[in-house]
Amino acid sequence: MENYNQTSTDFILLGLFPPSRIGLFLFILIVLIFLMALIGNLSMILLIFLDTHLHTPMYFLLSQLSLIDLNYISTIVPKMASDFLHGNKSISFTGCVIQSFFFTTLAVVEALLLTSMAYDRYIAICFPLHYLIRMSKRVCVLMITGSWIIGSINACAHTVYILHIPYCQSRAINHFFCDVPAMVTLACTDTWVYEGTVFLSTTIFLVFPFIGISCSYGRVLLAVYRMKSAEGRKKAYLTCSTHLTVVTFYYAPFVYTYLRPRSLRSPTEDKVLAVFYTILTPMLNPIIYSLRNKEVMGALTRVIQKIFSVKM
């Protein structure tokens, strides 16, 4: 029997990996995905910083997305891997609150940043002559700063709640990180008001932005269809399809998880869906944006050539 060394205020994260060979295989797979996400997002940030051709609003926002994804996956995976290796699944109450705060903050910031990126593409394709005015450096900084402020305020509200609810004797969280809805199931009080708050937050910060993104891309696709240049249409379709792929991977499992009432939720299903937006998306984003983007691949070639020319 596992010894969790649990104190009166510790929680137990039941985790994602079963104690079997399948669990070991999943652990190795997740660690490899984590390393790919780490290398991919760091490379994207450095590439955008080093290559002047990528010093545009779109790539500035993309570098911020990579920074968020880097923090996102680092908030979840190292603790999960440590628990599996050491067989100690306990996490202190303070540690759980901190993890929950950062996860909630980053989740909202990423959702708002993806919306900003959709707006950027909308302006670039539908109003190209106004692009430099509407997407100036100041506007980009305001978008990013606003996303972080709103995300932090939302996370503070959820964190304050979990700090003050009474928990029952069982402290086993059936998840691989301190997800607030999973923690709420351990409460010794009626939480219907808070569940309504979660529904409201999900609607405001996920559903509304997704509707906004869908509407903006509807306008973009219409504008692209009317383009006379075949090359311009191809480039615009490629950019839009790349962003829509990222948006779908992120929003779909998130919305499906958090908009369902507790009676329809399954811990196993929640954990599987959480893998998409906490682990797979941070790994896939840099791959999708680099492999399907000629400008990024061109910048990578130029940076590599510069490095080799300096060495020679």
UniProtKB/TrEMBL annotation:
Membrane topology listed for this record: Multi-pass membrane protein
Keywords: Cell membrane, G-protein coupled receptor, Membrane, Olfaction, Receptor, Sensory transduction, Transducer, Transmembrane, Transmembrane helix
Domain of life: Eukaryota
Residue ranges the record marks as coiled coil: none
MF GO annotations: G protein-coupled receptor activity; olfactory receptor activity
Function: Odorant receptor.
Annotated protein name in UniProt: Olfactory receptor
Subcellular location: Cell membrane
Record's keyword annotation contains S-adenosyl-L-methionine: no
Main subcellular location: membrane
Domain G-protein coupled receptors family 1 profile: 40-289
